[in-house]
What we know:
InterPro entries: Beta-barrel_OMP_2, OMP/PagP_B-barrel. Pfam families: OMP_b-brl_2. Keywords: Signal. It comes from Adhaeribacter terreus. This is Outer membrane protein beta-barrel domain-containing protein. The chain is mainly β. It has one domain (about 25-280): Porin (Beta Barrel). The chain is built from four helices and twelve strands; from the N terminus they run αβαββββββαββββαβ. Strands 1-3-4-5-6-10-11-12 form an eight-stranded antiparallel barrel. The protein is elongated. The two termini are about 35 Å apart.
Amino acid sequence: xxxxxxxxxALLSCGFLSAxxxxxxxxxxxxxxxxxxxxxxxxxDDPNYDSRSTWNSxxxxxxxxxxxxxxxxxxxxxxxxxxGAEFDIKGSDTFAGEKKxxxxxxxxxxxxxxxxxxxxxSGEKVRFNFHFGPQFNFLSEGSEVNQINExxxxxxxxxxxxFTAADVALYGGxxxxxxDVEIPTKSVVLAAGTYNRPDNITYVSGKKENFNSTDIGAAxxxxxxxxxxxxLYLSANLRFYYGFKDIRSDKWVEMEESRGYYDSxxxxxxxFQIGLHYRFDL
Length: 282
């Protein structure tokens, strides 16, 4: 009887120690690649632009976490993250001419991203995981430029375009015609070159001060983990992020609101992340 009790106790102890061996702190390194968008309905509807697929890297980062039990973990990541969007610019030789691609708009944003995540894990050597939590992004560089490849005429000074009356005054309107004498105020002529947006915010055109210094949103993802050797494992995840804040500065937003062009401009990303991690069992 005593022998059976000892054996039972030993088995239970082994099970307890095995469960405890799946808890403790862990460290890791990660890298990712994402499809990135800047959601702004006004920009999508703008006759001067045509959205195109944009891909950016989150090239390197670090992870620190704690596995509370075999299925629950909390982790903080810190990684460099590139966001933004690209658009074809659609212009014409004359105000009413046929539209063609004459250049590209690039919104380029570089952040240090810090997601704080809860992670649920199921399985043993090969595991499924689901994770979610808030993500904080701190801007290091930001710019929006229009790269024009040839002299072109674009729509301007309308509630449907991001070119304003100030742009018309700065760059010049298209020649007037007897058919439509308002053409000079409804278009802008640009020579080939690179143009900061918005040029009519003169205090720091094209610099990161035109953008919010922080972006806050929600991250959610799912994926797999697989042990390489004891306590060392690989991760492969799909990760999605939606930003809650307008990426632009308050002054830029006020300018767009004053002329009826405003719609919130938010970061969105979706892609994959791979990592290598080591857990320190307690």
